[in-house]
Write a structure and sequence with these properties.
The chain is built from four helices and no strands. With 89 residues, it is mainly alpha-helical. It is globular and about 30 Å long.
Length: 89
């Protein structure tokens, strides 16, 4: 949880790369930690890496836990691909 919390601070400071890295480290400890996935999705979106952002958003969407409600807080581009990439199923 430490890495995901630090990533939240980095997002506030607009430090997208370090935030994505810390989220990845948090997910190495707990691959099902949805907040880390959402934060990494945000970081990837800001880094304009929409493929990775979309991959994380899909993992959150497909989660069967009660925390899946966080999916509604996913960044604007994470749940919808640009037209040239097709829509998320």
């Amino acid at each position: 949880m430490y890495f995901a919390n630090r990533a939240a601070c980095q997002l506030k400071l607009r430090q997208w790369g370090p935030a994505a890295s810390d989220c990845t480290r948090a997910l190495e400890v707990d691959p099902a930690y949805l907040k880390a996935l959402l934060r990494r999705c945000t970081a990837y979106e800001e880094l304009d890496d929409l493929e990775k952002a979309l991959t994380d958003a899909k993992k959150v969407r497909d989660s069967r836990t009660d925390d899946a409600q966080h999916c509604s807080h996913a960044p604007r581009h994470c749940m919808h691909r640009p037209r040239d990439m097709g829509a998320v199923g």
